[in-house]
């Protein structure tokens, strides 16, 4: 026998709706830590299992992020990260308290890029990005063509401390590109920079930008803290 009628609005759904409203209205602001599971369960008279399920849904909707052993924090700010400039740059540009440390600028070679673009030498620029409260969140290595004025970057430095400004001044503007995403175990060197343990898995994003004519602009390899970054792909129509 089939029963028709209104589907009950369960405790989990009510909790999700209440927390979502608080986040989207700004009552729970970006960066603010949510109360612990026990406190939420007591406040809303639900089980801890219901709380965990609701928080999991909020994380799926990219409203919060959960750090193991620390708690859940609001990440929603109404701003979509612009992945065309790189994940860590987009995070910083969106208002997160991120500082960037330039580690090195040096000339180098890369056989794969040489074969692909016919460029013999590159300038490698390595930067560390750090959350002022939570510590390092990423290490990025940018490879750009060591041609023309760009070849002297190890001696002259970046224009206004910006890779983008430096590339634009050399007439290189990204018009297309591709990005590969995976995981990579931290080497001892990377683990020391990121204040983590060697062998720990980090997200790795390799983003290659080219001009409208297909010339290399920049290849950026980023190691990203998986507790701070995630990649969300969508398909179909809602």
UniProtKB/TrEMBL annotation:
Signal peptide from the UniProt entry: none
Record carries keyword Signal: no
Pfam families the record matches: GntR, UTRA
Matching PROSITE patterns: HTH_GNTR (PS50949)
Keyword 4Fe-4S applies: no
Domain HTH gntR-type intervals: 9-77
Keywords per UniProt: DNA-binding, Transcription, Transcription regulation
InterPro entries: Bact_HTH_transcr_reg, Chorismate_lyase_/UTRA_dom_sf, Tscrpt_reg_HTH_GntR, UTRA, WH-like_DNA-bd_sf, WH_DNA-bd_sf
Cited PANTHER family: GNTR-FAMILY TRANSCRIPTIONAL REGULATOR, MANNOSYL-D-GLYCERATE TRANSPORT/METABOLISM SYSTEM REPRESSOR MNGR-RELATED
Protein name: GntR family transcriptional regulator
Organism (species): Saccharopolyspora ipomoeae
């Amino acid at each position: 026998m089939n029963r028709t009628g209104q589907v009950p609005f369960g405790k989990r759904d009510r909790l999700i709706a209440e927390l979502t409203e608080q986040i989207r209205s700004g009552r729970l602001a970006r960066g603010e830590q949510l109360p612990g599971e026990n406190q939420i369960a007591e406040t809303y008279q639900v089980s801890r299992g219901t709380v965990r399920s609701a928080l999991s849904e909020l994380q799926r909707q990219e409203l919060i992020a959960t750090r193991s052993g620390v708690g859940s924090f609001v990440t929603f700010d109404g701003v979509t990260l612009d992945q065309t400039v790189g994940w860590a740059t987009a995070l910083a540009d969106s208002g997160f308290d991120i500082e960037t440390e330039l580690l090195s600028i040096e000339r180098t070679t890369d056989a794969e890029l040489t074969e692909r673009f016919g460029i013999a030498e590159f300038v490698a620029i390595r930067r560390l990005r750090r959350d002022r409260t939570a510590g390092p969140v990423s290490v990025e290595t940018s490879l750009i063509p060591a041609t023309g004025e760009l070849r002297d970057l190890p001696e002259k430095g970046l224009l206004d401390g910006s890779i983008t400004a430096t590339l634009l001044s050399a007439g290189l503007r990204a018009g297309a590109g591709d990005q590969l995403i995976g995981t990579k175990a931290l080497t001892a060197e990377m683990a020391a920079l990121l204040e983590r343990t060697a062998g720990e898995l980090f997200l790795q994003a390799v983003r290659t930008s080219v001009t409208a004519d297909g010339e290399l602009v920049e290849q950026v390899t980023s190691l990203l803290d998986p507790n701070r970054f995630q990649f969300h792909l969508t398909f179909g129509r809602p």
